Amino acid sequence: MAQQDLPAGGQGGVVRGRGALLADRLRRALGSDVVFSFKQSKVTMVAALITLIMVAGAILAPWIAPHNPFDLSTISLLDARVPPVWAEDGDPRFLLGTDDQGRDMLSTIMYGARLSLLVGFASVLFAATLGITLGLVSGYLGGALDSVIMRIADVQLTFPAILIALLIDGVAHALLGVSSKEDSAFYVLVFSIGLSFWVQYARTVRGSTMVEKNKEYVQAARIIGVPPVLIMIKHVLPNVTGPVLVIATINLAVAIILEATLSFLGVGIPITQPSLGTLIRVGQDFLFSGEWWITIFPGIALAALALAVNLLGDWLRDVLNPKLR
Amino acid sequence: MSDSKKPPLLEVRNLRIEFPTRHGTLVAVDDISFQIAEGEVLGVVGESGAGKSLTGTAIIGLLEPPGRIAAGEVYLEGRRIDNLNDDALRKIRGREIGMVFQDPLTSLNPLYTVGEQLTETIQTHTTLGDKAARERALGLLGEVGIPSPERRIDQYPHQFSGGMRQRVVIALALCVNPRLVIADEPTTALDVSIQAQIIKLLKRLCQDHGAAVMLITHDMGVIAETADRVAVMYAGRIAEVGPVRDVIMQAKHPYTHGLMGSIPMVGQHLDRLTQIEGSMPRLTEIPSGCAFHPRCPKAFERCPKERPNLVPADNSDVACWLYDQASAKAVGHG
Amino acid sequence: MASFVVRRLLQSIAVMLAVGLLAFMMFRFVGDPVNQMVGIETTPEQREALRVKLGLRDPIYEQFGRFIWKAVQFDFGISYQFKQPVSQMLASRLPATLELSIVSAIMAVLIGIPMGVYTGLRRHSWLSKIFLTVSLIGVSLPSFLIGILLIFVFAVQLGWLPSFGRGRVVDLGFWTTGLLTLSGLKALIMPAFTLALFQLTLIMRLVRAEMLEVLRTDYIKFARARGLSKRAVNFGHALKNTLVPVITITGLQFGTVIAFAIITETVFQWPGMGLLFLQSVQNVDIPIMAAYLLLIAFLFVLINMIVDILYYVVDPRLRTERGLAV
Question: pTM here?
Answer without folding.
Answer: 0.74
